[in-house]
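hi! just following up on the protien thing from before. the input was this:
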Amino acid sequence: MSFLAVSKVSKSFGGPAIVDAVDLSVERGAFFALLGPSGCGKTTLLRMIAGFETPDSGTITIDGAVMNAVPPNLRPTNMVFQSYAIFPHLNVFDNIAYGLRKLRLPGDELRRRVEAMLATVRLEGLGGRAADQLSGGQRQRVALARALVRQPKVLLLDEPLGALDKRLRETMQIELRAIQRKVGITFLLVTHDQEEALSLSDRVAVMSGGRILQIASPRELYERPNCREVADFIGEINFFHATVKGMSDGNVTVNAGLLGIVTLPSANVAPSITAGDHILLAIRPEHIRVGGQGVAGEIVTATFLGERSHFHVKIAGRTELVAVSGQAPSGKDVMLAFPAEKLIAVPTL
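and the predicted 3d structure came back as:
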């Protein structure tokens, strides 16, 4: 049995379903992310797991116990918000100790646990500092420490790094992953940031329109998306219309129009695709080879990004520009090759 299980959970607020018959399974000690655009239902699902919203139907189970009728304060969960929600009138120590005081722990035990958590989040020696004297990153670490000090079975994180600037957010991503590995608690993260989800998580569920489109490891989502929406949402990608000509011996042959007849491994083909289907072939910008034999094109725009360039190429017979990431040639004319092993076949819808 999964440690955290969501079974056929739905929720609406008087209109179309915000969360629509979602199934979700998270293993103990995992770092799991719910990824999707604003309004896809991910935060509503998180709030139902926390107990702040009640499912219209379905079951939520944590460590074998059904949570549907359990109030938020009695669930083995705690939550970290984007706004930090730390108490401005309390110092760092008292913010972290706030939840423990309700447990009426002996003073030496309370201090031991708070000091240990200060060390875990790298805030040693700052227990006496006032909340308004903290940087954004320090406030986020205090919020994490306060949520973790009561040792919940599941830590729920609702866009926890969204209020930080880019550099600090990247630093906190590294720290958040390190903290999760150190404490060993199951983390469930909600985010709309693809890079954040892929860099932090063991597994990711991509949501859209209240439903889960795909659950997979970050690498599998990036390299083997099961539909156009997932492929398009997880980083930049190019699409080419094609038709499946045949399927045999672990390979799939397609007529890809501008790209010619291409044979690709069946592992690169979405399971729902069959012979005769009109499909899309997708390829990431960094997987397109520049130079040699291939399709002729002309560079329209180019952006220098240090060790590589990102450029867009116009090829004859195609309206959309082709995005390429790599070493740009000195001139505008370029030949592009599309390796069959890097092409991904997904349904058109």
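The chain has two domains: 4-228, 236-347.
The mean pLDDT is 91.
cheers
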